[in-house]
């Protein structure tokens, strides 16, 4: 049973940086994945963000490089692929912190950076490269990046990479790295054809590390919802939560149009916020993330697409201004709070038409979410009851003649 980092076969320089980073005990995924990876196995791990997955692959990778030091300068030996630039940046930062007391060279290759900025680094000796697939492939095609010395290939958030259509590029990259010794694939879920087929092609006899952290993580997330009669009511509830309840909140909104509209309303109410929306220039994205991360603003508005891959510690509240279209996105959203053992709160604002989705979410996460009320902002409508539709479509008029959604105006 592994309880401490000292129980893992890690170099004292890694233990030192872990201590400085405030990682006192390994998380579940770290305790399970690190020994298996250090034993030389391919690893297939299920680990959503927030569970400590980055260190779970970075620590054994760094340890491997310390155990087998390079004999002469040369190209990268470990390649970590991530779906987004932000994630690549975060992973790079964390790997650099972990490797602080080593001489390893760590470098990231992502889109949004001029080739010129990469050129010198590409020519120099690198040990670990963190990259997004598209940009890396460009460099391989133009023969500015050499994959032949890669010994470990690590895929982070493989399910997101597949969702984003990176499957074929990653498979080509995997073929480029065919001389590698080991492959590690981390994914929030391992279910579904996509990840199963993908991992079968990329991994050799992998050891499956199935942590069940999501349920454990979720337990530390207190959840409730408020019912809203209409949009103005919803906005009032949100303002109340932001003013009275939350310290550092990420607010999820369905579309960028609604995000812009909400932003305007919050600004009018003198609630300062940063925001992320799709197709935002990289520098503005980074700026918004930095302002939120360093506490210059305590509210971040985001759409699901725009929030992909960002990891900000200490988010106290996840607020679902709009519910997502599927229950697994909901679970992914709320997983942004209660990171690595901390507590968090997830609050959803629910209009009548959202109730079936709310029920689906509760079924999916096998946990009831209770309703709460704010004095002075109680809903005027009764909670709608949506009856399950019968499968047979033949008889539209039900025997009872009752409507399934009965609401008073
Ligand atoms: P990750 O799942 O890798 O995105 O990590 C989630 C957060 O947990 C990051 O902010 C890490 O810095 C932090 N973290 C990772 N491992 C540990 C640990 N063993 N103890 C405390 N915090 C950790």
TrEMBL record:
Instruction: Please report the stretch or stretches of sequence annotated as the Helicase ATP-binding domain.
Output: 34-208
Protein name per Swiss-Prot or TrEMBL: ATP-dependent RNA helicase SrmB
A biological process term (GO) from this entry: ribosomal large subunit assembly
Q: Which reaction does it catalyse?
A: ATP + H2O = ADP + phosphate + H(+)
Residue numbers of motif Q motif?
Answer: 3-31
Native source species: Vibrio aerogenes CECT 7868
Biased composition (Basic residues) is annotated at 379-393, 399-409
Q: Where is this region: Disordered?
A: 373-409
The highest taxon in the source lineage is: Bacteria
What molecular functions are annotated in GO for this chain? ATP binding; ATP hydrolysis activity; nucleic acid binding; RNA helicase activity
Return the EC number: 3.6.4.13
Q: Name one GO cellular component term.
A: cytosol
Domain named DEAD-box RNA helicase Q: residues: 3-31
- Similarity remark: Belongs to the DEAD box helicase family. SrmB subfamily.
Q: Where in the cell is it found?
A: Cytoplasm
**Top enzyme class:** hydrolase
- Protein keywords: ATP-binding, Cytoplasm, Helicase, Hydrolase, Nucleotide-binding, Ribosome biogenesis
A Pfam family name for this chain? Helicase_C
Q: What does this protein do?
A: DEAD-box RNA helicase involved in the assembly of the 50S ribosomal subunit at low temperature. Exhibits RNA-stimulated ATP hydrolysis and RNA unwinding activity.
Enumerate the spans annotated as Helicase C-terminal domain: 236-385
Q: How does it assemble?
A: Interacts with the 50S ribosomal subunit.
